[in-house]
Amino acid sequence: MDLENKYLHCREYDGHPVIDKLNRVAYFKYASKFYFVIYNEEGAVKLRSEGFSNYETRDIQLSEVLRFVNGEESYNVVCNGDLYIRILKNDQGREIGRSCLENNAMAGIYTQSVHLREALFDSDIASRATDKETNYLNCNYYIGHPVSDKQNKVAFFRHHGRYYFVIYYADGRVRLRSEGFNDSKGRESDLKEALRYLDDKDQYAVIRDGDQQVRILLNKEGKEVGRTCPEKLNK
Predict the structure, then answer these.
(1) Tens digits of per-residue pLDDT, 129-185?
(2) What residue ranges define each of the domains in the chain, with the CATH number in brackets?
(3) Of 46, 48, 199, 205, whose CB neighbour count within 10 A is largest?
(4) Is 146 within 8 Å of 155 (Cβ atoms)?
(5) What Rg value do the Cα atoms of the chain yield, rounded?
(6) What is the C-alpha to C-alpha distance for residues 40 and 25, in angstroms, rounded to an integer?
(7) Alpha-carbon distance values, 122 to 4, 8, 73 (Å)
């Protein structure tokens, strides 16, 4: 399931009576699901919950959220130009809440700007990008393979029966890595798209975790076709 579908549109979290004034928490029920919302000092939505089948599960999740909600290191940030969603995770890396789509005029300091459609960002990238990393190998596995396409600096390799490609910079560093494919046909299809959009900065989305970022290359239909290794942010 698309994780964003577990959340309501942000307008549904507005204006509920605050039960916990210290933490600015409100509860509500919508279509037989139980939700909580945490507001900021101005009364805007700071963090929203997914829907739960009972209030006991909701309250357990809220208890965990309150442990981590004020720790900036507990958030992943999925950016789209000056727009972003902050995803709160617990110490096991499980998502336990997310912000609404926010605008930050200073976002360019922390991440490269991209100009994908907001609808694509909200329903696709934000809900899938942080989970898709499991389809990729650790960056160490992409280093040092023989280059088959010298013009584009592309190398192919196999690992545990899966097919991969990697695109290098001129100095041999990994520029873009692929996920693993069941066959060479799938790999070549994504490589074709990756080479097409590789130099188009507008086709990259960014996920940020602490002081690092990973840039995600998307084709015009919003399909991910590769991602960088983790990069240190220049703050």
Answers:
(1) 545 667 889 899 999 999 999 999 999 999 999 999 999 999 999 999 999 999 999
(2) 3-128 (2.30.29.80), 132-232 (2.30.29.80)
(3) 205
(4) yes
(5) 20
(6) 10
(7) 8, 12, 22
Residue 47: what residue type? Answer: L
CB 82 within 8 A of CB 104: yes
Q: Which residue has the tokens 């097919």?
A: 163
In angstroms, rounded to a whole number, what is the distance separating the alpha carbons of residues 172 and 174?
6
Task: Write out the two tokens for 188.
Answer: 């070549």
How do residues 186-221 score in pLDDT, each as one tens digit?
999 999 999 999 999 888 888 876 677 888 999 888
For tokens 């942080």, name the residue.
130
How are beta strands 95-98 and 102-103 bridged, if at all?
A: unpaired
Tokens 């960088």 map to which residue? 228
- Return the amino acid letter for 106: M
SS3 label, residue 119: helix
Contacts of 163-169 spanning 24+ positions with Cβ under 8 A: 163/187, 164/137, 165/190, 165/191, 165/194, 166/142, 167/194, 167/195, 167/198, 167/226
Q: Which two tokens stand for residue 126?
A: 């934000």
| pTM reported for the whole predicted model | 0.51
Distance CA 89, CA 64 (A): 10
